[in-house]
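pasting for ref
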Amino acid sequence: MKAIIATLVLLSGFLSNLHAADAAVPDSISAPAPGKQKGRVRSYLETGGERKLETVYKTTPKGDLHLDLYYPTPKPAGTCPVIIYTHGGGWAAGSKLGAGNGSFAVVFKKLLEQGFAVASVEYRLYKPDNDVAMRDCVIDAKDAVRYLAKNSAALGLDPNRFFVFGDSAGGQIAQLLLLSSPESLPGAPELVGAAYRILAGVSWYGPCDFEKTDLFNHDDRADFRDRFGPRILRTDADAQEKLARYREMSPINYLTSRSAPLLMIQGDQDTTIPVKHAYYMKEKAVATHAPVETMIIRNAGHNWRQVGSPIEPSLAAIVQRTVAFFSAHLHPAK
């Protein structure tokens, strides 16, 4: 009997700890208790400063959506510029917790040191058996930006100094956040009308155009098929609707001479999002006099995986260029 009671006590403690780890984290903390998400250990960005983690920015039929907000150290007396990060994962996987890992953690810690806040955003994910499409991913991300703008005074953020950064699918989302108007792709009614200004954005190996499907055909094979169509369209659509959705989700269609500056960094050996996207975006930018810069990484596949010889420029150079680009646009012309 004593053994059974002891086991029950231990089990109760375990469940309590598990619930606490998955609950919303208090507004101001130095280190959250680790938890789990789909079997993986949570890995928030470790900053040593103030963080507002698991902040609910929107409720959807699929549940609450959260963002993690990290403040620079030391936190300034005034308002902070903020980098909004949208993770990769093919619009079907990934997590906002990616901000605390690998090269992303390096980038964000450097930006925090330079006075930026960082907001890492969760958005709904496409699955073959649900009704979430790429458009919903983008709308969620836009609503996260709107939430930050609407609550900027309480959060200590400057809504006129927003920036965006994303990788892969998140790179496409970041491009759309940057290039489309704040009013476009409306989402939650309570967030409509939130005013903000995005000053610049960086896309790591993100696509720019879905209508021109040969941009995804890295080796120009004859039997190439459109891999991302099902993620753009919820159901079978007629040709007119398909074209409209493809164009709506293609950042290149929003590019004008008045666009905010964009830096696209792509690997020349990427077979998932080929370097063709960077070249095509740059070509459109030259034609429209839009402020787009590209950085091509030799011998780099997706996620900067080395293909053959070491990647060049190096990962350190990619990080440095990313941080420098944001810093250069921190004080816009009036």
